[in-house]
Each structure stands twice: as C-alpha cells, then as structure tokens.
C-alpha cells in the first residue's frame, strides 16, 4: 500500500516536501526512497534479533566486519598499519572499535568517527539470583539504565549474555542465549488493583519486577546455563546475564513505515554505523572509525564505556602504527577530526505533543535529528551542526532539530564525554523514535536508509 497522492491544480501529483522545502520529491522518487528504507530496515531487524545483549551485538558487528574484509587486532600486540587496512578491536566483549586506515597519516588526514552504544535499558540477573516465594521459583534482577518499568510486564522473556566456565584448568568465556521464553513478570489483575487505570501503576523495582521462572523448586538457572554451554553445573563460575523480550523485530504500519523492536536505542545507530563503515567506498584521506561502546545507559564510567580510555587508546595507537612518523601526531590528528555521536532522538508523540519544544518536534521518516543543548548535555555547536547539515543536504534532505523544553531536564549521550576526553569537534545526532527505553520501541524505516547514507558521507 502506498500513501495517497496530493494533486496540484493541474491534476498532476504534487511533489512532497516531507524531506524539506529545498528537497521536493516526486511520488516515484519518494516511493524509491521508501523501498530502500524497507530493505535497510529488514536488515536492521535481523541485526537486532541476533543481538539480545551487548556481547551478542559486538559479535554480530564483528561478523559483518569480517565478511567485509576486516580483521581483529589484539590490544596486547604491537600494531603496524598501512593505508587501507581494515581492522577492529574488541574490549571486554561488549565494546568494539573498527577502522579503515586513511591514505594520509592521521596527523594530516585526521579521523572521521561515528560513535554509538551497544547497551540498552533492561533487567539484569543478580549474582545469587534464584529464590522461591509463594510456591514460585523466581529470578532476582537488577534494573539497568533508565528502564520504563511497566513495559516489562507480561512479556515472554528469555535470558542471554555470557557465562564463565572452568574447563580443563582454564576459565573459558561463552556467549549464551536460552532463546525460548523462560521468564515472565506477571501483572496484577485489575480485580486486585481496582484503581490502576485512574490512579496509575506504581512499581517498586525490588518487589514488583521479579520474574517467575518456574513452580516450586523446578526452576534451575544454573542447570539451564550448563546445558547451553555443555558443561557441568558446578563448572559455572560467573555470568553477565540480561533478560530480553523474545518477540522478534518486525516492520509495521499499513505501508511498512515503522519498525517495531526492542533495543532500537541504540542498536539502530550501531547498525547504521557498521553499515556505513562497510559501504563507505574507496579509502579517503581521513581514517574512518566507528566506536560502539557499552555502558552508555548507566553513565559510561567503565573500562569499556565512553568515559574510559578505549577510543583514545585506539586512536593514539593508530597514529603511532603508521610507518612514517609525525611530530605531535595525536594532538594534530584531534585538531583535524570530527565525531558524530549517533544516538536515537525523541520523535514528537501524537498523544503528548505538548512535551516538545515548539518548532523542535522531529517526525519519523523525515531524516536525522541534530540535538542541541547549551548546557552541554549534547556536544553540538554551530560549526558541527553546520557540518552535519551539509552532509544531510548531500544525501537529499534537511535534518530536523531537537532541543528539550526549558522546563524539562535534558538527557545526554557519549558526545560530551568523548568531546571532553579527546578535544574533538562533535555533533550529536540520531534517528527519531517513539517509546524510547520501553521494552518495545518504534522508529521509521526510511530513517534507517537516510541514517546510513548520511553516516557514509560523515566518514568521508
């Protein structure tokens, strides 16, 4: 099904201004763009389904990079690089930095960096998690990030992450995904909570978000994990486990305008960055980089987060790994570089439109959003916004703008953290979405294509 055409006075279809007054599109042009969006969105859905945790997301990114000719570098090795090398580095299993070495030494060519994050708000399994209450076997969980509690109720949940196993005198690390629904956080029936629809649902994370995994003592998470990694139960030494919704990502809307999925914030940006790096074309003067971090949703303060040293370490080593030597190379490289901090943006909600600042209400399928905040919750300034605007124009649309209302607090991203750590010019952008931080989110299919094409150009 296609959208109805609007006719001008001559009876001919009127060009659409959906992507900006300067970028009018005929019905055929818009249909072709939407078709590309649907194709890109289907690939995004597959990416999300294979990435229930940050560890699985990094594995999926590495797999795609490997298929495109990238190879892994170990942090403990000495690096030697030449122009055109396609390499990636994984730290902690949940953060990955990939790059294509530029034709010029970074001191002269600089870096073009896309930053995003692999983690999403969810429920995570506590160390001693199994407990019994009222005849049910339950799983103790901890809230990770800014979870929208109510959206995790009555979902068919599974468990995934990584497990550390002792085998043959060594500690091995295995990714695990139980795949099928094994847990549920059941809602309280309205008959026992009569005022819920008028007074609102108030949930206590400790009391009300504890999932059920079995009856009596039949539930045994350690035994299920042991079967998944083919090891004895007592060989499991530790784990990092997340709950996730087993419902697959899908396209929606009468004309496939939407994506309905978990973890769009921020796997959609990770997918777009990875796709852009793979598809960016011939080697340019600048070194192209994507940095996909863990722990953004809880402040980025970790060895694998944006407040850690991972990106600085990788960029500094790239500067040093070229055969030719350049004095004061790292600082010179930073002075000639640009970071695009890619994190999802708040689309205007039709039922809550008054929550947006007037004239800063992004719409789905109208392209990327430049995010600004004078108090530096976003790192965008006039110069970096102009640079991003020009890239969007090259793709064929006008970017949208977002600032938070003056009477509401502003969220933040990896942008200001990285800008402060590296002294790198930064712009904060993202594709518009609804239901951010819900267990199930939604975004636009056309925006997937526009994001990838814009990020390709940002990489140079």
TrEMBL record:
Q: Which InterPro entries match?
A: Peptidase_M18 (IPR001948), Peptidase_M18_dom2 (IPR023358)
- What segment(s) does the record annotate as region Disordered? 1-20
EC top class named in words: hydrolase
EC numbers listed for it are 3.4.11.-
Q: Where is the composition biased (Basic and acidic residues)?
A: 1-12
Domain of life where this protein originates: Bacteria
Q: Which Gene3D superfamilies match?
A: Aminopeptidase i, Domain 2 (2.30.250.10), Zn peptidases (3.40.630.10)
Required cofactor(s): Zn(2+)
One GO MF term, please?
aminopeptidase activity
What is stated as this protein's family in its record?
A: Belongs to the peptidase M18 family.
Q: What is this protein called?
A: M18 family aminopeptidase
